[in-house]
Fold each of these.
Amino acid sequence: MGFRDDVVQFLTNPTDEQKAIAAAVVTIIVVDRYAWLHDIPFVVQSVGAVMAGFVVFFVVSYALTGEFVPPDEEGEAEADRFSDDS
């Protein structure tokens, strides 16, 4: 799958993770520009924008999936393999 196919898939049928990441990126851009327009120092502006992006990422991820961390089917199988319930 090439880059073009990835972009088309993101624009036409995004996964829940892609939706959460897109919401976080838009939030970072909006908060950064808001802080820049109000002459907030650069370090505070950057840290605030990234923190807002993380908050939005986790809230949107939870709203879409009902979990803070998406399920990892591979990781669950591996965890079951090493469990003490043998």
Note: The radius of gyration is 18 Å.
Amino acid sequence: MSTPEENLEIALDDARESESREQAIDGLQAANECDMLAEVVRRDDVASQYRELAMTKLGRPQCEATLETLHESDAIPDSLREQAEELLGDAPDDAGAGP
């Protein structure tokens, strides 16, 4: 089992096979490493498919603050900001809250 740091390294390494990079991103999600997933999203030198996958993996309640930061960021392409907005819209605001 890889550490989160190893998974981040694999996810960012363009010499690695696609399957390995995708598994590494899955591993970051499983470890609730929102900041490391955001690092993948922010990196211009990472292929868009991995940036988009990492963004998708951020669509969990634990990563909502990270998603909000990415949504407000000018450091990522508009398409990724729009994806963040969609993920934020899909997240339940007050799940289980009464009137």
Note: The CA atoms of residues 10 and 70 lie 22 Å apart.
